[in-house]
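User: Some background: our group keeps a shared notebook of sequences we're curious about, and every so often someone picks one and asks for a predicted structure to add to the entry. Today it's my turn. The entry only has the sequence so far, pasted here. Could you supply the structure so I can complete it?
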Amino acid sequence: MLKPSLVVFMVALIAVIGATQASAAGFKLHPSGFGPNSYCSWKANEGLPDNTGNKNQALYFQKMTSTPTFAAGVAVFKGFEGMMVSDLTALEFKYGTDGWCGAGAPRFNLRVDPDGSGPMMPTTYFIGCASMIDGAIGSAPNGRLFQTKTATGPFAPPGGTIVSLAIVFDEGNDVGPGFVFLDDIRVGTTSGDHTWHSASDNGDNPASDANSADIATSELLLGEPVSVLFR
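Assistant: Of course. Here's the predicted structure to add to the notebook entry:
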């Protein structure tokens, strides 16, 4: 017969495992991109140590073309749609300091339905790398330095719901190096944090090959026209 303390521990462990699996199944981060010489992809041996395995992945964004070119490296979050924007508490990533951190890229694009009813035109809020709060600096195994950048809520007026959330890199190599590595990408909510250290944090180990799509495919992933990324 199991001791009561052991039963409590096992129940708690099962609850934690269930919550972890639900989180992995319900929240995803999909690398994408469109336009010439622009894409987003997980890259091995470019980032900080991962929480599982030893690939040390980082999420690479590239736009090796001029800023006015209609092109971008994009990573789209899935699973936050319909959440109250007031439940969003933090947006964070660590960026490789050899890459670009500008006012407009990389940035979080948060698209919000202002009153949660749908008929009103959604509003897009930009949270750019340069405007985020500086945090600790860490060194990756390959020597790359990563600076923590954090933004905390409120991100929009209360009462609205999230339509979409993405990271956009659309400032080209005419203003900077044309790339950036991001790691430990975190979305904080009132129900808990969701952090991506590598592709495996999607729960299904998707391939980390270069991911660039045509505009139609990117729109399908985003769930709305890619033009909203630039508003």
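Suggested note for the entry: The radius of gyration is 18 Å. The chain is about 15% helix and 40% strand.
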